[in-house]
Specification:
By secondary structure, the chain is an alpha+beta fold. It has helices at 109-112, 115-132, 137-143, 145-150, 152-158, 160-163, 165-174, and strands spanning 14-16, 24-26, 34-35, 40-41, 44-49, 53-58. The radius of gyration is 21 Å and the shape is elongated.
């Protein structure tokens, strides 16, 4: 049998799924062929469809009601069009509490150290230190917080490039 390209990214450096044998995947993407906690195989592959772009095509017959896809968000962040919310857990805030490092809104000290918030916190803390050195830097930072908060999701998604290259690859393939 001829070697297949990755079911997700078209890489030719692949191995066949040892469970179903229907698809091949590269080292980064073969894990995305499995469905959630059950570990069953997804019954599709991504292909280029002339005139339509990239799409999913079944690799076998799919039964009515069969679970065929489990997805996780590549990144999440606070909504810029709501009342102020915690950048870690997204709880709507009735009173302001700020992360002591980056100064973004959080609901508690626990959320200022929360795993979802750490990506942008480390980046923004470095920037905040530099801005604070400027004349009126702290005031400028505080006045910019709503715009900075609106960029959190973008920062989290862009950081996938170094935090999770496999997820970054999937995200960038969505843009083709």
């Amino acid at each position: 049998m001829a070697r297949q390209d990755c079911f997700l990214c078209d890489s030719c450096d692949t191995k066949q799924c040892d469970q179903c044998g229907d698809v091949a995947g590269c080292e980064d993407h073969l894990k995305y062929h499995k469905l959630g906690y059950s570990g069953g195989c997804s019954p599709y592959r991504v292909v280029e469809i002339e005139g339509a772009g990239r799409g999913l095509v079944a690799t076998r017959d799919i039964a009515r009601g069969e679970h065929i896809m489990t997805t996780m968000a590549a990144g999440t962040g606070p909504c810029a069009r709501t009342a102020p919310q915690c950048v870690n857990c997204f709880l709507l805030l009735s009173s302001a509490q700020f992360c002591p490092r980056c100064n973004l809104l959080v609901c508690s000290a626990g959320c200022s150290n929360g795993s979802a918030h750490q990506v942008e916190c480390s980046i923004l803390t470095t920037i905040r230190v530099k801005v604070k050195r400027m004349k009126d830097g702290e005031r400028i930072w505080r006045e910019s917080l709503s715009n900075i908060t609106a960029s959190v999701t973008t920062i989290r998604l862009l950081s996938l490039k170094w935090r999770d290259p496999a997820a970054w690859s999937i995200l960038t393939n969505l843009m083709n």
